[in-house]
Amino acid sequence: MTVSSRMLISIMLIGLLPILSLGTAVKKASADPLVVDLSNHLVAITTGFTGTNVLLFGAVEDEGDVIVTVRGPDQDMVVRKKERKVGIWINSKSARYKNVPAYYASASNRPMDIIAPPEVLLDYRIGLQNLRFVAESDMTDEDKPIYREALVRNMQDSGLFGERPAKISFLSNQLFRTDIHFPANTPTGTYTINVYLMRDGGVASVKTTPLVVSKTGVSAEVYEFAHRYSALYGIIAVIIAVVAGWIASVAFRKR
Questions:
Q1: Res 102: pLDDT
Q2: What is the CATH number of domain 30-214?
Q3: What is the arrangement of strands in the sheet containing 74-85, beginning at the earlier edge strand?
Q4: Of 108, 136, 183, 231, which is most buried by a Cβ count within 10 Å?
Q5: Averaged over 157-184, what is the pLDDT?
C-alpha cells in the first residue's frame, strides 16, 4: 500500500468519525425508555400573580404507566390544636414537624393503587399518604395520626397539597402530557419533579427535572428589601400606614 493510499484511508476514517458518533448518540437516545420535559422551567411570580399551569410532556419507548410527583422545598411547620375554654377557642397543644414540602402534587394515567402495590409507592414516597414528615414534638401514638391529618388538611385547604392525583393523558401509545397547577400562594424555591415509568407493578425508569418558582419585578425587590432590612421595612410600613390614615381622615372630614 502506497503512502498516498494510506493517507486517503486515514482521511476517510476521520471524516466518518462524526457520523459514527452521531449514529451512536441517536441510538442511545432512542433506547432511553423515558423522555420528559417542561414547557417552562421557571414560574415567575409578579405583582398580581393569580396562579399558572406548567405543561409536562414526554414519551415512553414501550407501553407503560406514568406517575408524576411535584415536591416543593422542605420547611418546618407547626400544627396547633384548639380547645374551647370558658367560651373562647384557644391554642392548647401543638406539634412541630420538619421536612414538610411547601407544595406537593401528583398525577397518573390510571389510579395509583392499580399501577403499583402499596409497598412500591411507599418506597418511592409516592402519594400524600406515603410522605414522611419528621415530628420534633413528643406525641402519643393516638395523637400522631390526628396531627398528621390536620397538617395535610391545612395544606389542602390552602391549595398547596393536591387532594387527588391529576390526570395524565396519553396522546398515543408513547406520547403523554399533563398540566401542573401552581396557585397564587405558591411558595418560592426550587421544586423537584419526578416522573416514574411503571411496568408490571415496579419502577422501570425515573426522570428528575427541577423547576424554579421565583419572585420577579417590583414584588421581588420589595420582598428582598423586606428580608434584608426588616427593621427599616417595618418603620417605613408604619409611616406609610400613618400617612395614609391621616390623608383619609382629612379627605372625609366633615365640614
A1: 96
A2: 2.60.40.1930
A3: 74-85, 88-101, 134-135
A4: 108
A5: 94
- As a whole number of angstroms, the distance between CA 229 and CA 233 comes to 6
**Calpha distance 75→155 (Å, rounded):** 13
C-alpha cell at 127: 402519594
Q: Are 79 and 133 in contact (CB under 8 A)?
A: no
DSSP H/E element including 120: helix 118-123
Three cell numbers written together for 125 = 414516597
CA atoms within 13 A on the CB side of 166: 21
Angstrom distances, CA of residue 109 to CA of 68, 114, 119, 140, 144 = 9, 10, 19, 38, 32
* pLDDT at 249 (0 to 100): 67
SS3 of residue 162 by DSSP = coil
Which residues make beta-bridge pairs with 215?
45
Centroid of chain to Cα 42: 11
**Mean pLDDT across 17-34:** 51
Mean pLDDT for the chain? 81
Residue with cell 484511508: 9
What are the sequence ranges of the domains in the chain?
Answer: 30-214, 217-255
Residue 187's pLDDT band, with cuts at 50, 70 and 90, is very high
More confident residue, 226 or 163: 163
At residue 235, φ and ψ (nearest 5 deg) are -65, -45
pLDDT at 56: 97
C-alpha cell of 89? 377557642
What Cα–Cα distance (Å) separates residue 8 from each residue in 20, 21, 169, 198? 18, 21, 54, 51
H or E element that contains 93: strand 88-101
169 pLDDT band (50/70/90 cuts)?
A: very high
- Compute φ and ψ for 218, nearest 5 degrees: -65, -40
Structural contact between residues 100 and 71, judged by C-beta atoms closer than 8 angstroms: no
